[in-house]
Amino acid sequence: MDENKARKLLAEAELIHSEATVQSALTQVASRIRTRLADKNPLVLCVMTGGVIFCGQLLPKLDFPIDFDYLHATRYGPETQGGKISWRMAPWTSVKGRTVLVVDDILDEGVTLAAVKESLTRLGAAEVLLAVFTDKLNGKTKPISADFVGLTVPDRFVFGYGMDVDGAWRNLPAIYAMKED
Ligand code: IMP
Ligand code: MG
């Protein structure tokens, strides 16, 4: 995105969760993940690109053995047709028999992550758990729920902490909502 446009967008945006709130939620979610997975030697899969900040800050807080890899999936076709996804990059590491923790930025309608989970299960994962940093309160019935959630966000377009607006501002340490007009 054009630099001036990006700056204007941020200047007009509303702060939803400060950096301090984000970091405290991160600590709490890491602790819940630890309780659940410390003895599972999980395969952690970062969903690119949005999951990169959450995952990058989460991993150093997990003080137990893990394997790490990433996947990149995009949704195509109408959502009503079962949420087919196309893999831009499937995980290289075998998921067969593994406890897999999928890490992403946001659960919105849940179509993408539901399809990712289904694929990983089909590939032989023993168990697929889902960690999202944010869960959008959109009032919709989601085809999947997250096992671990950092924070909820309102039903608005949000950005920062991995989430982009037209490619910009994934790098922000806090979470903002775009101005509503
Ligand atoms: P869904 O859950 O299948 O609807 O799609 C989730 C994906 O859409 C996320 O991984 C994000 O990449 C993107 N997304 C959904 N809502 C937002 C938002 O408010 N800001 C930025 N990206 C979003
Ligand atoms: Mg995404």
Description of the structure:
This protein has 181 residues and is an alpha/beta fold. The protein has one domain (13-76, 99-176): Rossmann fold. The protein is built from 4 helices and 9 strands; from the N terminus they run αβαβαβββαββββ. The model has no long low-confidence stretch (mean pLDDT 93). Residues 47, 50, 104-105 line the site of magnesium ion. Inosinic acid is lined by residues 50, 75, 104-113, 157-159, 163.
Write the SSE topology:
Blueprint: H1 3-12, E1 14-17, H2 19-37, E2 43-47, H3 52-58, E3 67-75, E4 85-89, E5 99-107, H4 111-122, E6 127-137, E7 148-154, E8 158-159, E9 175-177
Parallel strand pairs: 2-3, 2-5, 5-6, 6-7
Antiparallel strand pairs: 1-9, 3-4, 8-9
The chain binds inosinic acid and magnesium ion.
Search tags:
single chain, 181 residues, alpha/beta, 6-stranded mixed sheet, 3-stranded antiparallel sheet, 4 helices, 9 strands, binds inosinic acid, binds magnesium ion
CATH class: Alpha Beta
Unreliable sequence segments: none
Bound molecules: inosinic acid, magnesium ion
Q: What is the total tally of β strands?
A: 9
What can be said about the biggest beta sheet?
A: 6 strands, mixed
User: Shape, please?
Assistant: globular
**Widest sheet, order of strands:** 4-3-2-5-6-7
Overall residue-averaged pLDDT value: 93
- The CATH architecture term is 3-Layer(aba) Sandwich
Distance from first to last alpha carbon: 20 Å
Question: For the CA atoms, what is the radius of gyration?
Answer: 16 Å
Structural class, judged by helices and strands? alpha/beta
